[in-house]
From TrEMBL:
Compartments in which it is found: Cytoplasm
Transmembrane regions listed in the UniProt entry: none
Protein name: 5'-nucleotidase
GO biological process assignments: nucleotide metabolic process
Keywords annotated in UniProt: Cytoplasm, Hydrolase, Magnesium, Metal-binding, Nucleotide metabolism, Nucleotide-binding
Catalytic activity: N(7)-methyl-GMP + H2O = N(7)-methylguanosine + phosphate; a ribonucleoside 5'-phosphate + H2O = a ribonucleoside + phosphate; CMP + H2O = cytidine + phosphate
UniProt GO MF annotations: 5'-nucleotidase activity; magnesium ion binding; nucleotide binding
Length: 298
């Protein structure tokens, strides 16, 4: 009796894995009946809205974009790389629990932020650094951002990256629409435009729940939208919807970019839909098109 799969052919792509297909289809169907006015999208940024790799090369994260001679010196580059090589394997290690990783992630980002502050980064150089970087949003990003804006669906981006850089990437891709809200690590510049600190509480991969609870609650645009489409590339991203008041339907999509075999099982058990080495927004776009189409909105 099911006809949903015919209407969302993208779910049949070989890169799509689902633990419980019928539950996914039921959730999408419920969201579609409630319509765009009940929907919000919550997404991670680095390696979720941006590509993981392109033509076999890693695409830079917001922190990597700062690795530019305009902003930081060689010594800082070297130290940041050493930190990445130490802590990134821990972040994606399937054999360690989130509790075990948490203090180590705090340690990592705190050290990175301290290094960046020492470099006295200049605000007016950020735009140029983003322009010179090979930052890339996923294929189909324009359709994604434009579609959400057109239907006035809020997009909350919750990122452990650097908010100033993230905003610049979105701006340079011409998709910074009024429905986009960002919770991230923002730089605090002094009156001369030099970085002197990072504002507020540190957001990292495993404390997004706190970020979502404390800050998302204040966003009036998100109220009265009990249906959530959540996008992430890390198991820590699954807590991003914890700030939603009285959620009805939550559909989670996980991008499994790296260490696929080691992490596949945990991703399938955690996300509703898992996209394996998929550098596009095809599946989220197809689901959004289906939810916002008014066929059954009676």
């Amino acid at each position: 009796s099911r006809v949903f799969s015919v209407q969302i052919p993208e779910l049949a792509k070989c890169s799509v894995l689902m633990r419980d297909r019928s539950r996914v289809e039921d959730t999408i169907h419920c969201m579609q009946r409630a319509g765009a006015g009940s929907l919000q999208v919550i997404s991670d940024f680095d390696m979720t809205l941006t590509r993981f790799a392109h033509n076999g090369r890693r695409v830079p994260t917001t922190h990597n974009i700062l690795d530019n001679q305009l902003l930081i010196n060689e010594d800082c580059t070297k130290k940041m790389r050493e930190l990445l090589n130490t802590y990134y394997p821990i972040e994606i290690d399937a054999s360690r629990s989130a509790e075990e990783k948490l203090p180590l992630m705090v340690e990592w980002w705190t050290k990175v932020h301290e290094l960046l502050i020492q470099q006295k980064i200049r605000k007016d150089m950020l735009t140029q650094a983003v322009k010179e970087s090979s930052a890339m949003l996923r294929e189909g990003y324009k359709v994604f951002f434009d579609h959400l804006a057109e239907h006035q669906v809020p997009l909350l981006i919750l990122s452990a990256g650097v908010g100033d850089v993230l905003e610049e990437v979105i701006r340079q891709n011409h998709v910074f629409h009024p429905n986009v809200h960002i919770i991230s690590n923002y730089m605090d510049f002094d009156h001369t435009g030099v970085l002197r600190a990072f504002r507020g509480q540190l957001i990292h991969t495993f404390n997004k729940r706190e970020g979502a609870l404390s800050r998302a609650a204040g966003l009036r645009e998100l109220q009265g939208r009990p249906n959530v489409l959540l996008l992430g590339d890390s198991l820590g991203d699954l807590t991003m919807a914890d700030g939603v008041a009285e959620p009805q339907n939550i559909l989670t999509i996980g991008f499994l970019n790296d260490q696929v075999e080691e992490r596949k099982e945990s991703y399938i058990n955690s996300f509703d839909i898992v996209l394996v080495k998929d550098e596009t927004m095809d599946v989220p776009n197809a689901i959004l098109t289906y939810i916002t189409s008014s066929r059954d909105n009676k």
